[in-house]
Recover the amino acids of this structure.
């Protein structure tokens, strides 16, 4: 029996998870009662027999999101402060729910990267503190791998093409020649980032998440305006779309109801129509590049992970595409799609069982300490490997 | 996955093909479209019919818009490159016979398929049929020969490498010509390039099933076996013209950025499809910027190559190679870079029928979708 604590904080969600992995394929005990801030969990078993992922049990999965006011995004400084404010509370609550003894905990897992530097640093500090306080080894986990591992474990997808879509990442990952490779990605900004920034221009609420609110609004829209469709081979580009849709948003605000649907010339364009237009266009692009990767490697399963994967319209579109190809789509619900501590604990524990451990010296939250990154990056976000 | 389409299934084809007498053979089913081999307007004119079926997962307005835009864009680009169109401002004068390698309209005649007909509402485009196999298959063939014969240091494999270099140089020059004509392909992969043998007897037979015994080639190689063979057989050598196909994502552009992205797409596609030959890719870029037949020699090519460096850096995440856990006993999570050490190629990427000794790690999927990237 192995138990791990996972801390996630690469963006504005602070997640603390405690996971239990049995050593063999023995059935797990009765699920322990617990409730997270958002939903309840139970034990789950990997569906596929080819998996050697042991049955896992979620002992605690708590999350608190830093929500910024409408019209704004979350800044690293404020986000880091939020994480620092909440981490102790969440860890305490998680430990209480999980009812585990300190001796039973194998390791402390945390997100080493990629993500926003300051919030990652706060979480790293918390992880280091726990590790030294409780005398437990540390395991730094790659955020993206956490998502993929969790998605596979929960859905039991055997060999999927993975669409990883969130505020910070948009990649199509497929297995080819004994390796997982990135087949396609967003060349400029992530799709979630595009959606979030669009929400800001329309002052759509960020609670619980801007993408969620865009989705709800889009359900009421039905006019499809014309947006540039930028698929470049296996890659996609969203900055052009964002620029155009922001223009449209400003036009909508200024028009005061006088902007009419060009087809019928009677119905006024609404916020919902813009949300609908944006979603249909960007999701069609994502499904297209996923389909290309599937055709290229001959896969039939698609796994969607990352925050944007919660979107039901995206899941629906992907499902239709997969079905047309004789395949299926796998997706998790918001407990696991959105950044959470459990995925970090899960991936970290798997690694730890094979002997992986992050030494204290390597957990410095200063990006420059990871030598090979210095001078090579022009991006705002640091890649932590 | 080549198969003749029986008359009963013809109704699913768009007008005017749904009740016409010509033979149809499904060559490939890519992500974007279906490719058929058939004849057009006359039984002695073999043609490639590309159908873009409706995608039900897209909003219908978006779907129609995209289909129409893509068919028209592709046709316009091919017409420009083949020089079949009317000279702009020339008072209705047709473009004179362009020499191969000329920059501008007509500069790629013979190196791209010519347009025979289209219907943007119906969602189809008919182009000339190109004999031969894809460059992807050719490289696999040579790569396998290299593996078999190249076990010792300096022992064999060198010829194959030279052959490959020659092929890659050809590739670089053709792409250079393309860019010099003011067109950017948009989807450069080795599946979108054909090696047309130099001497070909025009194929006009559809006898029996047109199947090649060894593998279903997505090209005329299957039907070529019906005819008395010319001296150069497409399957053995890397000679012949390198013909670009599938201009579905092509745009007319002269910007360095677009050209660099074009090369970047090719570089990445090449690296993931032919990992063993990845190190040779530099030949392509070298021929692009310095090759005699390129059209992008000198400053133009140099600027694009420099832009390419920028584009590489800009890719949001570096090309990671993730060692996956959970496949058999869980393995440590590591992000690796570098050449892979395996000798066997992923089974699903090989043409059907190839004997592979180790158990496949992946389900052998539909390879025809993988080989022709429509």
């Amino acid at each position: 029996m192995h138990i791990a604590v996972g801390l996630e904080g690469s963006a504005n969600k602070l997640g603390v998870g405690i996971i239990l992995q049995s050593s063999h394929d023995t059935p797990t005990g009765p699920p322990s009662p617990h409730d997270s801030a958002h939903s309840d969990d139970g034990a789950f078993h990997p569906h596929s027999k080819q998996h050697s992922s042991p049955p896992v049990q979620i002992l605690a999965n708590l999350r608190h999101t830093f929500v910024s006011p409408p019209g704004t995004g979350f800044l690293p400084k404020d986000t880091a402060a939020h994480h620092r404010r909440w981490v102790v509370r969440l860890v305490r609550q998680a430990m209480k729910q999980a009812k585990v003894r300190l001796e039973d905990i194998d390791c402390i897992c945390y997100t080493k990267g990629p993500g926003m530097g300051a919030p990652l640093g706060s979480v790293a500090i918390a992880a280091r503190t726990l590790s030294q306080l409780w005398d437990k080894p540390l395991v730094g986990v790659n955020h993206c791998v956490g998502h993929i591992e969790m998605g596979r474990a929960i859905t039991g997808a055997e060999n999927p093409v993975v669409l990883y879509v969130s505020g910070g990442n948009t990649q199509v990952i497929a297995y080819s020649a004994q390796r997982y490779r990135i087949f396609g990605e967003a060349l400029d900004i992530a799709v979630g980032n595009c959606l979030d920034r669009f929400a800001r221009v329309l002052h759509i609420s960020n609670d619980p998440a801007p993408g969620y609110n865009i989705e709800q609004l889009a359900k009421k829209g039905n006019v499809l305006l014309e947006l540039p469709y930028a698929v470049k081979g296996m890659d996609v580009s969203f900055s052009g779309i964002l620029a155009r849709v922001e223009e449209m948003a400003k036009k909508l605000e200024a028009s005061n109801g006088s902007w009419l649907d060009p087809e019928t010339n009677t119905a006024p364009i609404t916020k919902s129509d813009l949300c609908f237009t944006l979603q249909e266009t960007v999701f069609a692009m994502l499904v297209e590049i996923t389909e290309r990767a599937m055709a290229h490697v001959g896969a039939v399963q698609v796994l969607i992970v990352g925050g944007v994967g919660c979107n039901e319209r995206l899941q629906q579109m992907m499902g239709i595409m997969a079905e047309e190809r004789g395949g299926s789509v796998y997706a998790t619900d918001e407990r696991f799609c959105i950044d959470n501590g459990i995925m970090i604990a899960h991936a970290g524990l798997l690694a730890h069982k094979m002997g992986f451990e992050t030494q204290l010296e390597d957990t410095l939250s200063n990006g420059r300490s990871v030598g090979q990154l210095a001078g090579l990056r022009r991006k705002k976000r640091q890649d932590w490997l | 996955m080549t198969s003749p389409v029986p008359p009963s299934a013809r109704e699913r084809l768009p007008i005017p093909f749904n009740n016409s007498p010509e033979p149809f053979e499904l060559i490939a089913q890519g992500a974007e479209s279906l490719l058929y081999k058939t004849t057009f307007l006359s039984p002695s004119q073999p043609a490639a019919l590309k159908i873009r079926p409706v995608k039900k997962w897209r909003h219908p307005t978006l779907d129609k818009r995209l289909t129409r835009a893509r068919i028209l864009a592709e046709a316009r680009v091919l017409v420009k490159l083949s020089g079949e169109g009317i000279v702009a401002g020339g008072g209705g004068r047709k473009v004179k016979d362009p020499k191969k390698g000329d920059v501008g309209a007509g500069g790629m005649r013979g190196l791209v398929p010519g347009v025979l007909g289209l219907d943007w509402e119906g969602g189809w485009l008919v182009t000339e049929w190109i004999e031969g196999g894809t460059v992807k298959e050719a490289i696999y063939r040579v790569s396998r020969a290299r593996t078999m014969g190249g076990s010792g240091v300096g022992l064999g494999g060198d010829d194959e490498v030279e052959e490959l270099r020659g092929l890659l140089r050809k590739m670089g020059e053709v792409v250079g010509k393309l860019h010099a004509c003011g067109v950017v392909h948009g989807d450069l992969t080795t599946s979108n390039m054909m090696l047309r043998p130099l001497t070909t007897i025009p194929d006009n037979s559809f006898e029996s099933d047109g199947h090649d015994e060894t593998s279903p080639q997505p090209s005329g190689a299957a039907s070529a076996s019906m005819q008395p063979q010319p001296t150069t057989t497409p399957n053995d050598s890397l000679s012949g013209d390198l013909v670009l196909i599938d201009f579905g994502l092509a745009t007319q552009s002269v910007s360095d950025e677009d050209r660099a992205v074009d090369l970047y797409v090719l570089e990445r596609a090449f690296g993931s499809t032919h990992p063993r030959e990845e190190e040779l890719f530099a030949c392509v870029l070298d021929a692009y910027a310095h090759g005699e037949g390129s059209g992008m020699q000198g400053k133009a090519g140099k600027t694009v190559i420099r832009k390419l460096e920028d584009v590489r850096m800009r890719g949001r995440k570096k090309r990671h190679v993730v060692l996956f856990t959970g496949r058999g006993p869980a393995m440590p999570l590591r992000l690796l870079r570098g050449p892979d050490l395996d000798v066997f190629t992923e089974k699903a990427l090989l043409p059907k029928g190839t004997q592979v000794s180790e158990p496949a790690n992946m389900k052998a999927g539909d390879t025809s979708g993988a080989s022709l990237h429509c």
Q: What stands out?
A: The radius of gyration of chain B is 21 Å. The longest helix of chain B spans residues 60-82. Chain B touches chain A through 63 residues (CB under 8 Å).
